[in-house]
Amino acid sequence: MKTYHAFFLKNLFTFLIPMLVPILILGTMSTVIIKRYVTEEINHNTTNMLKQTKENIELIFKQLDSLNIHFMGNSIEFANLKSLMLKPSLELDDYKVLATIKNLIDAPAMAMPYIDSVYVYLNNDKNRILSTTSGGLIDLNEFYDKAWFDSYIRHQHSDDLVWTENRTIKKYNFENSAVELISLYRKLSRDQGDGLIVLNIDAKYIENHLSNLSTLQDQTLLILGPNGDVMFKNKKLPYFDHLIFKDLVSDGRPFYETNLNGQPFIVSKLNSDKYGWTYLSIAPKTSLYEVPDGLNLTSQLLLMFSFLFGSGLTYYLTRKNYRDVKTIVTILESAENSKPLPALPSRVKDVYSYIIHSILKNFIEQNYLSIQLSERKYKAQAMELIALQSQLNPHFLYNTLETINWKIASLTGKPGNLNKMVENLADILRYSLEGHNKPVILQKEIAYTLSYIDIQKVRYHDKFDVVWEYEEHVNKYNVPKLILQPLIENCIYHGIKVKEGTYRIKIKIWQTEEMLHLAVIDNGIGIDKERLDQIKYELKQDIGETDHIGLYNTHKRLKLLYGESFGIIIRSKYGWGTAVYLTIPI
């Protein structure tokens, strides 16, 4: 029973953990990332919407500034209107002057659908006003809208130059419904005796504009006055009936989460310094985070399903594996006690039936396997003897070179070029023997390549120069051993013998991303096009017999080490020189 439980726990961790961990990590990361992205997008989009709304509405109210500038900048019209309001009765010429002035305030009221009316009041003892809704001057006592005058009286002695109010008026007594207005007051000057201009804006027009904005689900847009009263809104406020907006206005944060009526909401704010208004966006958090919350729920359901599915699969596999293991143990006990073995399985279905099949087959073929084992031991001993013999020859050559070097020094009495050549050759031989075919760092490869170049310089009496071009940081990368020597040998052999003058070899090494590039470039005689095509063909067709053994061996080694896509690239022009390029992954 303990074995059964051990199998169950092993299979549980084998199947269930790899299944649950990625789902848990992916679900958590996706939820966090999407929530962060949604928050940033909500903040960005809502702020832009509030800025655009603020600019559009303040652009509407700039009409009042234009009227004020006109009256205050035109002292004649201002004086004419003042005198008309003070006259007991108007004459024909007075009506003409009045018509000109009235056209000034009628034009924006008629052109702009959001302007309900415009009032101009200059302080006069007859309480006359000029309104776009009347034919001319009208006595305030006979006018249907008198509440604005009370507001003017309250602010007459204050320092407020501009203020706003939301009002409801009835233009006619027989009307059942009232008109909702936003009145924008502006004194003609800070002098208490001048008067003011009143711009009445149709609140429904502004609210329709807000309603047509592309908002999120259940998102409410509000424009609040300085006292926190709602001036405009894009929809009804069913869940804000008892909400005190002063708290939202006084909060200094532009974007935050708060609880309203027991529900979480996301609040975005933008303040208007000119009118003291606050542009406000309020949206339920649940509707904004519907996608990440849904993803989180999906991840939890997927985790639960994976756990149940994995547990069921683990139980099934545990029963099956335990039964197969018992069968294997029974076979081993039968073989140990020399009891008859069962027949081979008819077919191999899984790893356990494969083990059973293999055990029975191994017992049946025991004698044959014993013979094979003896034969393999004999072959292994022979291969070991050959390997030891192959190691003897290079070491014999190395020791012989050391003896020659010592003999030369004893005959000449001092080290010379010949000693240097022998030492370099011994270094190269030692370098080729150590570490078998393991890669070496580029710095070491360059050092032993320099030893080879020194030998060739003595041989050819400094007929050629070698230029190195690389940055120090590439020295740390691994390259195949003796990768440069065959290419330099090829340059010398096919260049120095046939070209007069100084011969130059340039070795360039550079790195790009995950590749190390090497190039050996010479200014030798070059290769004619026909011969170059033949060399490329021999390299491509994997032809071993070629005059360019160094190029072929290097090309073959790169393909064996790194794959068929690697190898050398040859470019040459007869009379100009040859360049060999190779690439090594790092």
UniProtKB/TrEMBL annotation:
Residues 482-585 form the Histidine kinase/HSP90-like ATPase domain. Keywords: ATP-binding, Cell membrane, Kinase, Membrane, Nucleotide-binding, Phosphoprotein, Transferase, Transmembrane, Transmembrane helix, Two-component regulatory system. The chain crosses the membrane at residues 12-34. It comes from the Bacteria. Pfam families: HATPase_c, His_kinase. PANTHER family: SENSOR HISTIDINE KINASE YPDA, SENSOR PROTEIN KINASE HPTS. This is Sensor histidine kinase. It comes from Paenibacillus phytorum.
